[in-house]
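Minutes, project huddle
Topic: does the predicted pose make sense with zinc ion bound?
PN asked that the exact inputs be recorded in the minutes so nobody has to dig through chat later. Recorded below.
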Amino acid sequence: MTLNAADRDPSVDPGVDFYRFANGGWLDANPLPPGYGAWGSFEEIGVRNEDVLHRLLVHAAADPANDLDRLLGDYFASGLDLDAIEAAGTTAIEPLLAAVDATTSADEVLALLPLLHGHAITAFFMWGVTVDHDDSSRHLLWLVQSGLGLPDRDSYDKDSEAAAALRSAYVDHVARQLTTIGVPAGTAHDRAAAVLALETRLAAQHLRAEERRDPGRTLNRHDLAALDALAPGLRLPAYLTAIGAGAVESVNVQSPRSLSTLHGIVAATDVAVLQDYLRFHVVRTVATALPAAIEDEAFDFYGRRVGGQQQPKKRYQRVLRALGEDMGEALGRRFVEETFPPSAKERARAMVRELLAEMRHSLQTRGWMTEATREQGLQKLESFGVKIGYPDTWRDWSGLVVSRTSYAANRLAATRFELARQLRILHEPVDRAEWEMAPHAVNAYYHPMRNEIVFPAGILQPPMFDADADDAVNYGAIGIVIAHEITHGFDDSGRRFDGAGAFRDWWTEEDQAHFASLTERLVEQYDGYVAVDDVHVNGRLTLGENIADLGGVALASRALARVSTGAPDIDGLSPAQRFFLAAATIWRGHTSEQLARTLAQVDSHSPRVFRVVGPLSNQDAFQDALGLADDAPYLRPRADRIEIW
Ligand SMILES: [Zn+2]
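Predicted holo structure (tokens), as shared on screen:
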């Protein structure tokens, strides 16, 4: 993209509100569309990507060119066939509901978990397979806390009017959803209240969102004897055998307390309440593929109440999203054939090289860092893997059977297929070429155990990345994102993994103390921001992302200064000015109040407006580029500015 003057608001002093100065015109011209809880650059790209995918899928459904097209086309057609969805009713989940009905004791309820978890119904807890944090050539099975219908633990115990109202709306929702599967309306509300009470007892044992960011808390390897001793009543070795993972020698327990207390909670709860809890979670998991009465009810609570959407998205968008969750790489494969030429990959790769060089320079020049830690950090950086666009080898979908007759059955089949894949690779070496995000996703990631940064083709699109734009604009947009992901390898969590992806302390005590004193100041900065009404940003929950945002802007700005020497002004704007305008542009957007509340609780990223002022207020380069006075309100006082990387 080229920057657009109409997107700005020249009536605002950039030293007072640079976010508004850079984005005011756009913000006024682009109110929140009814189908969205948030709307900004990411969503704009998402809609454009969806248009491409939609076109491909319509074609695949009408005239499939190959097996992959047929798979995608059949799934897509089943999701659009509303008559068939109504006719099928709850058939797809009846076997699961019947199994719940047949239980007569707490232990029988627990014995159902392998079956439910095998359909991604995450009652009480869930399992998943990831890279082993002690040996990144191997896989490791995790048992993770789960099974709450509200966004997070805080939703159950927070003492505020908004939280109480959400809990009350949740009980109404659970009650209505139970009636859709035959619970008499007269008793549904009381029964739903009992489900909330059960979830509240479960939630009290969960790690909070900010605690889950700490690998020191969540990396808890247990051999089978230790696992059995942790929660004898759950008979976890037998559970592992039942899910098909009986041959493992050890597993990771994300939240030991929530597992060790689970049997006691379940045993002390009426079987009838446990059954209602399971019934609700079966319906909740599959709701968007079931008849309108159930899907609409799910939207009313999760879309409107939790997600702040006024209306559901269009049907094809909802099916596309489901398809992305269930068969992301299949969908993305068709996407990149259309949208991501080799030239785009090469330009992105060149930027990654420059930004890695900037991180190297940063590690070499941190005044507080001792040589021992510096050397290890540089080694880690040299081992970084980089993936751009899409996987070199594509996932094999043979064995997955979908049909045009039942959307819900397709979704469950895709879930079983994915979980079976995870169990299959559990005993295989890690495939370094594998991706953990769909190629069409408007997103990117750093993976600590793989020690790699990954940028799907979906985010390498305008305005984030434009092969035709000048460096200043690309460094201010995707360059910041690339540097953000690089920084994650050296944020408060990523820094605790080494170059081989092992969870290993390679920092001297002195360096740790220096790093912690810098990050504590950042916690304080963001704790001061208000997300919505009386709800503050949680500086500790968002710390890793804020470190990455700060590093992202700092590294990309320095890299641009290096590569843009002699670059001309464009439209009267210097490269540095264009960089910072682009940096504000990528975070422009509106967020509904409901979604802002939800995100403040669960999202490890700060609200978008603070992803601009947070880092920029700390940048001398920003002050210089805009020619702002030292006491400009948008800036932190010089002495308070934080530079980490
Ligand atoms: Zn991040």
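Observations noted during the meeting:
- The longest strand covers residues 125-131.
- Residues 89 and 291 are 6 Å apart (CA to CA).
No decisions taken; revisit at the next huddle.
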